[in-house]
Amino acid sequence: QAAASLQRAAHLRPDDFGIWHDLGQAYLKANAPAESVRAYKRALEIRPNAELALTGLAEAASQAGDAAAALEPLRALYARSPKDVGLAGQLASALVRQGKVDEALQVCRKIKQGAPKVKPGELWGRHQLRSEWLRWSPILAAEGDAYRAKGRWSEAIVAYQRCLLIDSTDPTAFDRIVRLPAEIVHRRATHLRAEAPRFSPDGRRVASVGSDLYAADVATGEVWQSGRADGFEDLVRPIWSPDGRRLCCASGGKLYTANLDGSGYQVLMRQPPPLPQLGKLGIPRSEKRLDAPQAWPAWSPNGKAVAFRMKVAPDVALTFVVDVKTGKARSVHHAAGPLPKFGATDFAPAWSPDGRVLCGPLLYRPQQQAPGLTVWSADAIVKRQIALPREGVALAGPALAVVEVAWSPDVRYLAALLRQKGADGRTVLALVPASERQTARVLAKDVAAFRWLDASHVWLLQRTGDSYVTAGVRALVSDLRGNLKPDKQPFPILPILDWDLSRDRRWLAICAPGGGKRPGTRDKGLWVFDLRRM
Question: From start to end of 314-369, where are the E strands?
């Protein structure tokens, strides 16, 4: 009704700027963007540089899907306000839709130079909505679209992932990632809510968890699932047996194994294990909990045993080994002797490649222990307690300090990913010698993941960037002295989603933000990227 009245007024006073401007507004409110575009264009013929009309035309043209009509008013507005992040995002998006991708990238680069700086700890800390940064998401989305139009897939993915770094539940950013060409990204298990992907030893399948335990074939997408009728409770990331025929996972505080040949699943530990004499260490019998949760499993190299961590009292965590065939478990630590000087608990045990030595969680009283590693021999005797590096780094307490450990192929060193003190989630990668004649040293800071390449070199991902619009990672190779060199194969993914990397570093699997739990969205399942095609 308002639009009709203004239309009559415009017929009587065709050169009145205010009437045509108000008519454009009325059409926009009436959800008639095409008519709004025509009204704003007439207003600009009367007053060519009117900012209100330029703004209205840009909005109306965008709603009408007319990128060509939106482009010129956006250019004019951005020229007046070159620091306006919102205008820059609108202009860059319109430029991409018009095929002017180089100009769009130039707009994105220029506006990103003015982005606020962020401390590394805040940048890579726990993922949560950064509402003050949401205005930058359209810039990053347009940048990703521009790179995608140029076929620069890895740069496009990183731009989209920066949107997820700002808001990990952003459905449009994730949707842009998974709509990349089929030769780049393979969508697998599309009907499932998948989390915690894990590649098989040969890289041909990816296990994940949801309401059940799944394994998807990378090449064909064929999905195996355990078929447990009553489902699992709070499934934790699965691990593969060395031969790739079985999976082990934690659920509801218990460990389960499942055979991929269709013969089903079973509870791994069939009866409570005998406990060390904890009373000798001042732990009352009333604190012992035989129904304690089991977590962080690790298959032995020969596949005959699984090591895991179990909390047996409020501040007591021990490493146990269970025989896969018999289901009998034992603690690898005898409580005789003095209280251990070092402790750590929140990581998976690590078997040496020959299966003769095990490094695993051990924690008695965190207030009385410094963070450190404990190594056992196969006969369950403490071989050595190892101090972690302290020079130049402040580590978290023993309950949180150790994130992951892995033996070198020659069993001379442990590489340990360690968490620093504070709530910002910063990490360091340390080299921990098995020999008492050497001391641990830091190889690199702000490390997201690592792999041993050989007995003398470690591959690692180091986080970079000083804001949410520049966050990235670089793949490096470190020798045993901490000398870092760029890896020959760049790494195109930010390690912010639920992800895993195949052993040969060719395939990367990611799951949807939040495991695809949001109703009405298409981001279920898992996706596998061929990194060599990027």
Answer: 316-323, 329-331, 342-343, 350-351, 357-360
**Helix and strand counts by DSSP (H, E) for the chain:** 11, 29
Strands 484-486 and 499-501, bridge-based pairing: unpaired
Helix (H) or strand (E) holding 337: none
Q: Chunked in runs of 10, what are the mean pLDDT values of the chain (534 residues)?
A: 81 84 84 86 82 80 82 87 92 91 96 88 65 90 95 91 84 82 78 84 91 86 75 76 92 85 78 66 55 81 92 80 89 65 89 92 78 80 79 86 95 94 82 86 93 96 90 94 90 78 89 53 71 82
Residue 53's SS3 state is helix
How many CB atoms are closer than 10 A to CB 262?
Answer: 9
Three-class DSSP category at 214: strand
pTM of the model: 0.85
Element (H, E) at 485: strand 484-486
Q: Give whole-number Cα distances, 393 to 370, 419, 446, 474, in Å.
A: 14, 10, 12, 22
